[in-house]
Every structure is written in structure tokens, then in C-alpha cells.
Amino acid sequence: MAAEDTDNARLAVPPRPGWTVEATTALNLHRVTHEVAAATWRLGLRRWFWGEGVCLLGLVRAAEAFDEPVPQAVLDWYDSHLADPSVDPTALLDHVNEVAPGTAAVHLVTHGARTAYLPALDRLEKWTRRPEVTRDVTGAIEHWPGGVWADTMVMVGAFLLRLGEQRRDRTLVAEGVAQVLAHAEVLQADNGLFVHGSHHGEAIPCHWGRANAWAALALVEALEIDRDLVDPDSRDELRRRLDLQLSALVATQPDHGIWDVLVDGHPETAGIIESSAAAGIAAAMLRSVPLLGTDRYAASGWLALRGVLGQVDDGVLTRVSAGTVLQLIPFGYSVIRDDRPQPWGQGLLLLALAAAGDALSRGEFVR
């Protein structure tokens, strides 16, 4: 189109070379996981917030994947917020994204590290049902009144799923699945890709990279829930949507592995890479193998992870876009700053490294 503004895309700095297949060994992945974890604490997890929640989940999953104990720093962080039964974490909340730290806490309860957190997590779940937590006509919890965003699929959806599984509560698991599928109904385009969000009932056709990471991870989380707790028809729908999305992402992946900030190659953002999105998508692709019963997305997942690892400086993932509100036109995504470390970048990279560790432990190989 003549009206397209491609200056920012034209001037984008290309990514540094990614890791080679030969360099991507279990030993090197384990080493860089510790470097990323150390850098994450160095940058600081200062408050009960969504970025911290993604980091904490990544730290816990990475420890599990490499058969290590949960880091004491993670336990100390949660103890400071949840161990006192009189503390109500919902007093810290004013937005649905802030449910996110609850998910890693459920993992700690499930694996016996901190059963004392359960009362606080129960209150957190009840908070998601308050009247001020508004919902779309599909039942999807809104990011803001009048807007459904892909972020919520992980920030709230994953928490409900894992807490429901821990409780063996089919009703709560069903609510988590319903949130994932309701968001997908609103946000997944006919081409399989997800858009960032909707605005007053209209899905805005900007296929934001991190939205696709959140969506793919949420679909994977839902499919990883104990089969006995999930309705078979819902599982089939989750599988169908994940397969459709990952197939579309493979088709749009650049040779260097890292998708643009809008993953469909839109001219106004073509060449502006977004590392955190690629890390999240890589994690979902590697975790999808046992869930979909196929390894056809594994090579793309490894390519994305190897590309992302080339953008790591002293444990810090670079080229991560800042917190991003819903943009109504594609050009809006070309001007989001990406020159600072971001906690969600660290967390999504840790999730990708954890997925890689799990894949290698299953006997899969680097592509």
C-alpha cells in the first residue's frame, strides 16, 4: 500500500547469528540456563507483578527440567509474599495480569515444597471471579473492560489450569480450559495466527509476536493437564487450534529463526525482530511434541531457540520489546522500544531452555 510507513523496518538492525546445532549441547544449555537465571536475579524481581510471574515460572520449570532443586531464592521470594496465612495476595492486585505469579506458586505446592501457600492461592482464584473482573460475551476475561488480550491466556488461564489440576477440581480445570478456548475464539485468525487483542468487540488484525507466544504456551499448558480432568472434546479443540497456529508460525519463520514483532511479515515491521516472542514460541513448539504426537514443529522450535540464544549478552536476552499496549495499526508495533532488559524476556527464555532440557531428556535431538 502506498500509505505504508516502512522506514523503521528498513533501518532495523539484523539479528546476530544464532547458535549452531553443534554448539547446542545439553551441557551448554544447562550452562546458559544458570547464566540467565543469575542475570534475572541481578536485574531484580521487585514486586508481585506479571513480568515477575513469568520469570518465576521460568525459574521453577528450568530447575525441574535440569533435575535440580527449586532455587532457594524463588522460595524466599514466595515466602515473603505467601507463607504468612494472614497475608492476602489479592490486596496486591489491581489487574488480571497480576495473577501471573500464582502459577509458579502452584508448582511449588504440587511438588511439596510449600503447601502453606494454598490458602493464599485459593483467595487468588476467588479474586478472578469478582464482578470487577469483566468478561467478553464469549466468557473470556477481559484485559481491560472492552478488550480481550492474548496475555490473559497465560496470566490467568495457566494459573486456573494448574490450580485446578493440583486440587483435582474438574470444575476449575474446565474454567481454565474455557478461558483458553474463549480467548482463541476471539483472537485466532483464519490463518491460524493470533492477534494481540480486541477493541470493543473487534479483533484488531495485528499478529503480534508475543501474543502468539502467550497463546501457544496457554494451549500447551491446557494440553499438559492430566487427561482425566479435561473433557475429550475440549482436548480435541485445543489440539486443533495449537496445530493450526504452529503450522502457520512455521510458514512465517525467517531463516535465522526469530520472528518479526508482527509474525506475519507485515511490511511496516518486517525485519524488526522480537526475541521474547521467539523464545515463547520455541518453548511451545518443543513442548508440543508429546502433546500432538508429532515432531513436525520441533525443528522450527530448535531453530527459534538457537536464534534467540545468539541474542543473549551475559545472561540477558536482548531485542525484547517493552510492555506493549494494543496498537490499532501495524505501524504502532514498529516503534516499541527494545533497548532495555525486560523480565518477561528472561522468563520466556527460561521457559524455552526448560522445554529444551525436557526434550533432550525424552531422547529427542537438537535440529
Question: Keywords, please?
Answer:
367 residues; two-stranded antiparallel ribbon; 13 helices
Descriptive account of the structure:
The model has no long low-confidence stretch (mean pLDDT 96). The strands form two sheets. A two-stranded antiparallel sheet has the order 1-2. A two-stranded antiparallel sheet has the order 3-4. The chain contains 13 helices and four strands. It starts with 6 loop residues before the first helix and ends in a 6-residue tail after the last helix.
* Average pLDDT for all residues: 96
Instruction: Write down the overall geometry.
Output: globular
Low-confidence stretches: none
Structural class call reads mainly alpha
Question: How are the strands ordered across the major sheet?
Answer: 1-2
Strand content: under 5%
Biggest sheet, open or closed, and with what strands and sense?
A: 2 strands, antiparallel
The gyration radius over C-alpha positions equals 19 Å
User: What's the SSE pattern?
Assistant: HHHHHHHHEEHHHHEEH
Give the total of beta strands: 4
Name the helicity range: 40-55%
